[in-house]
Design a protein that fits this description.
Helix 4 links the parallel strand 4 and strand 5. The chain is of the alpha/beta class. It has 7 helices and 9 strands. The radius of gyration is 16 Å and the shape is globular. It has a single domain, classed as Rossmann fold, CATH 3.40.50.150. The relative contact order is 0.16. The structure holds S-adenosylmethionine. The site of S-adenosylmethionine has 25 residues, from helix 2 and strand 4. S-adenosylmethionine binds next to helix 2 and strand 4.
């Protein structure tokens, strides 16, 4: 597999959109419905945060809107946790699986939306993570409802990384009134210089 189309970062091989296998999958697909067409940069800030604040060993983690699944992959490779990735868009699954396979991992993928996750499943997870999953105004309410169900179910911590789009700030504003939450900024220097934001919500 050609190294020039891969970013080596934090012990992971991360696919660039130019990768021949990525191009092959793209050619076979009609296109993406909800922005699952690359690894988004907020996930690099999220893995940087997760490196500083690791999750408890043996815990279960749900990655929402996982796309190509970088953050969950980072956790699987580097921390002793079990990750499930969910995404509404089935067309991201081949990329998710490709990125898993080049890293020797088999993270579970489920094609489903935030809206289908209820308390009886959420109570199985200690942590929920997501990066760049609040990019349209219409996403704020379904996400907020999910966060509410998750906290009610006993999820201990939720991390949502974002470049700082207006729907994200709207979400953080409501979260500050409803939950024990804060927003932290995270500056990374590799593989690029970038600053992103992480909404941190803690269960009671
Ligand atoms: C901007 S991409 C980010 C992907 C990945 N988290 C990353 O950082 O590389 C947003 C992802 O959220 C997914 N998504 C959008 N709406 C969703 C919903 N209601 N439920 C689950 N996933 C959703 C999209 O299909 C897409 O893969």
């Amino acid at each position: 597999m050609s190294e020039q189309h891969i970013i080596n970062h934090c012990g992971l091989k991360i696919l660039r959109s130019t990768h021949p296998e990525v191009r092959k999958i793209k050619r076979l697909q009609q296109g993406h419905s909800a922005h699952g067409n690359k690894v988004w940069r907020s996930s690099f800030a999220l893995i940087d945060y997760l490196e500083t604040y690791p999750f408890k060993a043996k815990s279960k983690v749900l990655e929402i809107g996982c796309g190509w699944g970088l953050s969950g992959l980072f956790l699987t490779k580097n921390q002793d946790v079990n990750v499930t990735g969910i995404d509404i868009d089935s067309s991201v699954q081949p990329y998710f699986e490709l990125q898993n396979s080049i890293n020797g991992c088999e993270v579970e993928f489920q094609e489903r939306s935030f809206e289908t996750l209820y308390e009886n499943e959420l109570n199985d997870y200690q942590y929920i993570i997501g990066s760049d999953v609040c990019f349209w105004d219409e996403m704020t309410n379904p996400l907020l409802d999910l966060l509410q169900r998750a906290i009610k179910s006993g999820v201990e911590k939720i991390l949502i990384a974002d470049p700082g789009r207006p729907p994200f700030w709207q979400l953080t504003e409501i979260c500050s009134q409803k939950f024990n939450s804060e927003v932290v900024s995270r500056r990374i220097h590799t593989p690029w210089k970038s600053e992103k934001y992480i909404l941190v919500i803690r269960g009671d």
